Amino acid sequence: MTRYTIIALLSLLHLSFGSDNAQSTIQAILDDKKIPAKVVQTQDLGHNLRAIIVEHTQNGDRIMLFSTQDGSVLFDIGEIMWSNDNAFLTKLIQSKSQFEQEQKAKIDSKALKLFETYQAQTITFKAKKPTSNTLYIISDPMCPYCLKELEKLSSRLESHNVKMLVVGFLSEDSLKKASEILAQKSGDEGKNLALLKKIYDKNYKPKDSQNQQVLEISKAVAQSGVHSVPYIIESN
Fold first, then answer.
1. The CATH fold of domain 118-235
2. What pLDDT is recorded for position 100?
3. Which CATH number fits domain 20-102: 3.10.450.520, 3.40.50.2000, 3.30.530.20, 1.10.150.20?
4. At what angle do helices 172-184 and 189-200 cross, to 10 degrees?
């Protein structure tokens, strides 16, 4: 489902479907705009607002919209909302946090399965002391925030094992760099770290090559719901 830069705001406490008329009106808007989604939950927020959660009819992705009380106007809001009603704002903040946590848990579950599927392509670093704590990191070689995360590796290994899947999300050079890493990775942690540092360097010019498996992994990661990097999952 196209995200329309939607903010996710929905509490799973005290959910109600609201009036059948409002839900039918909202569904009619979605159908008229040819958005392949169905209304699955709605919550009265007060101030003539409803929080509406809709689900893509094919892939099951869920997003959050708002509507007027009668459902005749369906809209998105940005990150900023002001009100003198502190109870209302608190409700929104709590709803947002809970919804996002639940959505991340679903994505995490799908993403973790990819580390099993692509175990041979995963780059693994063992913690400095034996531990079951593991950080699973999905990373793009052209992402400056991924580079900063790579620079934290030594401190991460103080308490966690680290497993990395490298993807090509951001550009053609991302795919080329990820392809080089996949082609040259080995079972030697030191060599793998040196390889990552070399290719993640912003001044490094990648070779003109693409690995079909990198395309496959990148597509699978995107289909899991991961759309930004670095994406980090902590497990123990």
1. Glutaredoxin (3.40.30)
2. 82
3. 3.10.450.520
4. 160
